[in-house]
Design goal:
The protein is an alpha/beta fold. The chain folds into two domains: about 130 residues, Alpha-Beta Complex (Aspartate Aminotransferase, domain 1), CATH 3.90.1150; about 260 residues, 3-Layer(aba) Sandwich (Aspartate Aminotransferase, domain 2), CATH 3.40.640.10. The chain contains 15 helices and 17 strands. The longest helix has 21 residues. It is globular, with a radius of gyration of 22 Å. The chain binds ligand 7TS. The site of ligand 7TS has 17 residues, from α5.
Length: about 425
């Protein structure tokens, strides 16, 4: 399939050079060149990230914040430099506002736990109908423990938040709100700046789940004025098992620690423990040092290309995919928001999404099939699951062609 390169492709974006940085992309699956379109689940890693981890383990491996020896000092320096890298990437005011966690899920649980003592019966927590389970279940657990009520702002048939209904749900009882920046099941990008403003008119703290947004949207936490922002490194070309929580200093000062243990204390006696300073207070135990260094390297890599350039490329892939999909009569896209990131969730008439996933894999094409940890979204659209193609900085228009050809093949096979 020929593509109109001048219209579809982003000028000066050297996708082939980028692809060469990602060793995992260069392989055959079932005899076919891999087409990796499961980036919303996790992204592949560039060589610089892999090298940073190897370098750490080969040369600097030691525990941090405790040894006076050289290796420990080197490891500590690299770990703390990664914190500064995250700070700059998010434009946080100080690196103390960055707490390393296992990922978005742990960061959300940390914040939910911090609000345990602040909520009671009659209070409300406000989320939206498009949240990932990670941004539902911790709040449900918090509500169960405190007697508070979970309120859910609805979405429309395009998968967009209904902003007026969100606003109508804000009341004096609302004590916290947790909202996704971008939906993993639909691709919808929420008007979070507006949502945050509405919440702040009532002085309601707000957490933004940036797990999907972070690789696609340049985030400025000061401009957004969010109280908390969370993301996972592995969707941002970093290793699994590392992520970050940004928290406004004044909010972190009000928060009680999530876990107790080493490193989060300054003095321990059997009578009383004095906690360490922020951010260490929230980082109990030996952290994922190598992962943190890998996260720093991933952000350096992404920054060297530029999030806006990456987003422009991915959006052109999405537009092209949506356009091309129109020729497939049996295909229905789930999630057609006006403001959308590079995710195409779809169903095919008469073919279960799991079969779509398996049959695409037979053709070397990796897509995710399932409920995407967003069962309420599936319920809303009346589907058990969807197949999902999600694009990253290294995907190409030719891969979109391969996706479409793969879908057409499988429709033909099923008959
Ligand atoms: N929030 C959103 C919006 C997500 O998409 C995910 C993961 C999470 C939170 C949790 O991130 P974790 O790294 O802590 O697990 N989403 C997906 C997905 O769409 N497919 O696999 C994981």
């Amino acid at each position: 399939m020929a593509i109109n390169t001048s219209v579809e492709k982003v000028q000066d974006y050297d996708v082939e050079a980028i692809r060469r940085d990602f060793p995992a992309l260069d392989q055959q699956i079932h005899g076919e060149q891999l087409v990796y379109l499961d980036n919303a689940a996790t992204s592949q890693k560039p060589k610089s990230v892999i090298d940073s981890i190897v370098q750490y383990y080969e040369n600097d491996n030691a525990n941090i914040h405790r040894g006076v020896h050289t290796l420990s000092e080197r490891a500590t320096l690299s770990y703390e430099n990664a914190r500064k890298t995250v700070q700059k990437f998010l434009n946080a005011q100080t690196e103390k506002e960055i707490i390393f966690t296992r990922g978005a899920t742990e960061a959300i649980n940390l914040v939910a736990h911090a609000f345990l003592e602040k909520l009671s019966a009659g209070d409300e927590v406000l989320i939206t109908a498009m949240e990932h389970h990670s941004n539902i279940v911790p709040w449900q657990m918090l509500c169960e423990k405190t007697g508070a009520t979970l309120k859910v702002a609805p979405i429309n048939d395009k998968g967009e938040l209904i902003l007026e209904e969100f606003e109508a749900l804000i009341s004096r009882s609302t004590k916290f709100s947790a909202i996704s920046h971008m939906s993993n099941a639909l691709g919808t990008i929420n008007p979070i700046r507006q949502m945050i403003d509405l919440l702040h008119q009532h002085d309601i703290p707000v957490l933004v789940d940036g797990a999907q947004a972070i690789p696609h949207i340049a985030v400025d936490v000061q401009a957004l004025d969010c109280d908390f922002y969370v993301f996972s490194g592995h969707k941002l070309y970093a290793p699994t098992g590392i992520g970050a929580l940004y928290g406004k200093m004044e909010r972190l000062e009000q928060a009680s620690p999530y876990q107790g243990g080493g490193d989060m204390i300054s003095v321990v006696t059997f009578d009383k423990t004095v906690y360490n300073k922020i951010p260490y207070k929230f980082e109990a135990g030996t952290p994922n040092i190598a992962g943190t260094i890998g996260l720093g390297a991933a952000i350096d890599y992404v920054s060297s290309i530029g999030v806006d350039a990456i987003a422009a490329h991915e959006n052109s892939l999405l537009d092209y995919a949506v356009e091309q999909s129109k020729r497939i009569g049996k295909l229905r896209i789930i999630g057609t928001a006006d403001n959308k990131g590079a995710i195409m969730s779809f169903v095919l008439d008469g073919i279960h999404p799991h079969d779509v996933g398996t049959m695409m894999d037979r053709q070397g094409i990796a897509v995710r099939a399932g409920h995407h940890c967003a069962m309420p979204v599936m319920d809303f659209f009346g589907v058990p699951a969807t197949a999902r193609a999600s694009f990253a900085m290294y995907n190409t228009h030719e891969e979109v062609d391969a996706l479409m050809a793969g879908i057409e093949n499988l429709i033909e096979m099923v008959g």
